Amino acid sequence: MKPTNKADFQRVINAAGYSMKGLKAAYINEAAFRQEIWCATILFPLGLILGETNIEKALLVGTVLLVLVTETTQ
Question: Which of 64, 58, 69 has the alpha carbon at shortest distance from 44?
C-alpha cells in the first residue's frame, strides 16, 4: 500500500478552508441564503422528529440539504 502523502492531506485541509470561507461569504452577502439557513435549522430537526422510518427521515432532511446546495450553486 502506498504511504499517504502529506501534500494530499494538506490539499484537503486547504479545500475545506476555502469551502468554509465561501459559505461564510454567502451567509454575509446573500439574504436568501441566510433565510434558508435559518429555515434549515428549524426544518432539519423537525425532519428527524417527524419522520417515522429512516427513509422518511432521510428524504425530509435530504430535501432541506438539497435546497441549501441549490442556493450555493446559483
Answer: 64
